[in-house]
Design brief:
The complex is a heterodimer of chains A (308) and B (259). With 308 residues, chain A is an all-alpha fold. In chain A, 79% of the residues lie in helices and 0% in strands. Chain A is built from 15 helices and no strands. In chain A, helix 5 packs parallel to helix 14 and helix 12 packs across helix 13. The longest helix of chain A has 36 residues. Chain A is flat, with a radius of gyration of 24 Å. Chain B is mainly alpha-helical and 259 residues long. Helices cover 71% and strands 0% of the residues of chain B. In chain B, helix 3 packs parallel to helix 6. Chain B is elongated. Classes of the chains: A mainly alpha (308), B mainly alpha (259). Chains A and B meet through helix 1, helix 7, helix 12, helix 13 and helix 14 of A and helix 4, helix 5, helix 9, helix 10 and helix 11 of B.
């Protein structure tokens, strides 16, 4: 078990290092002269551009820039915005609480809705209920999130006036965006749960359990639902990939000042250090959550726990 | 020719014939006809500038379709190559490739797309690139699995022992047998191309200038959504219909090829 965790830890560190390196070289070296592009618009002369470059350390050799960048990261620095010189770390710190609450509540919605739909699609005693659950899963998977979000705003905010259409602050502001984002990623979870239930129902050990006279309720609980827990945990963690992408759309749609909106604005303005900082943050978050979920699965699943 | 194929061909026909079919100029604004509800002259109503939404959808679909096909090409060519190559690796090389692809796949694809747009600047071509490149690894993963599965079967061994060259094996044995996977993968990935392409243009990264595009039309429907909510329905429905139709048809193709 320890060796598995150790291997996971090493793999995670390698992934994080690769993310940082790619983010650095992709965004610092290819664009040639971002500073010039940024400052020329404001009519700055060559001297100003040169000074700004020197100030940001952009005239140093690439390897030295990389070393400084990594050293800065270890001190918790992510550079400065090209637009107003604000530290990227500060910009992120101001906006992350809103994105964090959106992400966590959306993940909760996704887990609950996905598991409920998936279990219903296979285990519901009525055919109609099962069919409806199956249809809903397919619908969640094929509806584009930006369309679903737009329709939800029209219906629940504009027409029914149940929730505020945009902004942050209260629980009411969080319900619509978290539901849209959560339901959007719940389709994949539902599909997995549905498949696992179907496999388990025809498995030999379930037939054995039924044959020895175990009540169906206990068969469902212990032999069908329980083995599905580890893979479902991993699947929920893997949805973070889509949640992070989804926050960009959702925060734009619901006008929430979070990290997704910050990333979009930085992309539109080609503000490299901000994009870089957010990409590194997103990459590290993904790696940590995925590896933690895989570790949890290895620990929960006795077949994997005992095999090492 | 089943019902799904008919739906897809009708959609494609409508888009190809857009200039002939569209009743209005998709760019022409009309201050006297803003945010009108659907009627006989404006089938899907008009937007906040008085432009005919039906004409914009027809014209916009051409651009969405063209950019999605370009993105599909940008993913499919390297994706198939990488997948076939990865599928033939064994031992240490397989482990290294597996680790590298895992690392790349773990990275959120929309973040990658935004990095690409940051580098290339906004515009239709850069969103096609930003849509296509992040899908290469997922594409290659599906092809890799199919390749590995085909190569592990006994008839491949038998063909080889009959004296077939590697080239013959790839062309006649491998290709013939991964075709079902290839079709369904192309369908799934094309669906993602349409969805992500529309997402990026919805976010305002396609350069704008009023050129219709399904993502842009949907984004613009938010202006005046209170008094004209119908404007948001048609563009989203068009995106969803195209994605679902293509995925269903390629799934059917995969099934008929696997028999």
């Amino acid at each position: 078990m320890t060796s598995i965790l150790l291997r996971r830890g090493l793999f995670a560190i390698a992934q994080i290092w690769l993310t940082i390196t790619l983010a650095f070289f992709a965004l610092r070296l290819i664009p040639g002269d971002a500073i010039q592009a940024q400052l020329l618009g404001s009519g700055a002369g060559a001297v100003v551009v040169e000074n700004r470059r020197a100030q940001l350390g952009l005239n140093l050799p690439p390897v030295e820039q990389y070393a400084r960048f990594v050293a800065g990261l270890l001190r918790g620095e992510l550079g400065y915005s090209l637009l107003d010189g604000q530290p990227v770390v500060e910009m992120i710190a101001q906006r992350y609480p809103s994105t964090l609450s959106l992400g966590i509540s959306a993940t909760l919605v996704a887990g609950i809705v996905g598991i409920a739909l998936g279990a219903m699609a296979e285990l519901a005693p009525y055919k109609l209920a099962a069919e409806m659950a199956r249809g809903t899963i397919r619908l969640m998977q094929s509806l584009p999130i930006y369309w679903a979000g737009t329709l939800v705003i029209i219906l629940f905010a504009d027409m029914l006036n149940l929730f505020p259409p945009s902004g942050t602050g209260s629980l009411g502001h969080l319900i619509l965006p978290a539901s849209v984002l959560g339901c959007h990623v719940s389709g994949g979870i539902g599909r997995l749960v549905e498949g696992l239930m179907a496999d388990a129902r025809s498995a030999d050990y379930v037939r054995t359990a039924q044959a020895k006279g175990l009540p169906q309720r206990l068969v469902t609980l212990r032999h069908i639902l329980r083995p599905a827990v580890p893979p479902v945990i991993v699947m929920i963690a893997l949805q973070l990939n889509f949640i992070l992408g989804g926050t960009v759309v959702i925060e734009t749609l619901f006008l929430r000042p979070g990290l997704g909106k910050l990333l979009l604005d930085a992309t539109l303005q080609q503000d490299y250090p901000v994009v870089q900082g957010l990409v590194i943050l997103g990459g590290i978050t993904t790696v940590v959550v995925n590896e933690a979920a895989l570790g949890l699965r290895d620990w929960l699943d006795p077949r994997l726990r005992l095999s090492s | 020719m089943n019902r799904r194929t008919v739906v897809l061909f009708m959609l494609l026909g409508l888009l190809l014939l857009a200039p002939a079919l569209a009743p209005f100029d998709p760019m022409k604004t009309n201050p006297d006809a803003q945010l009108q509800p659907p009627s006989l002259s404006h089938l899907f109503g008009t937007d906040y500038l008085g432009r005919d939404i039906f004409s914009r959808i027809l014209h916009g679909g051409r651009r969405t379709l063209a950019l999605s096909l370009l993105a599909l090409g940008l993913t499919a060519a390297p994706g198939i190559g990488l997948g076939l190559w990865a599928g033939t690796l064994r031992g240490q090389a397989e482990r290294i490739m597996n680790g590298a692809l895992n690392v790349l796949q773990a990275f959120p694809s929309l973040l990658l797309a935004l990095v690409i747009v940051t580098l290339l600047g906004t515009g239709p071509l850069s969103i096609a690139v930003a849509t296509g490149l992040p899908l290469i690894v997922p594409f290659s993963r599906l092809i890799e699995a199919a390749t590995r599965q085909v190569l592990s079967q006994e008839f491949v061994e038998a063909t080889r022992s009959l004296g077939a060259s590697d080239l013959y094996l790839v062309r006649h044995t491998l290709f013939a047998n991964i075709q079902p996977t290839l079709w369904s993968t192309i369908g799934i990935v094309f669906g993602f191309c349409v969805l992500n392409n529309a997402a990026l243009s919805f976010l305002g990264l396609s350069g704008g200038l009023g050129v219709p595009d399904w993502g842009v039309i949907l984004a613009e429907a938010r202006f005046g959504v209170r008094s004209a909510p119908w404007g948001a329905i048609a563009p989203g429905a068009a995106i969803t219909a195209l994605v679902v139709a293509v995925q269903q048809i390629t799934a059917d193709l995969a099934e008929s090829n696997s028999r």
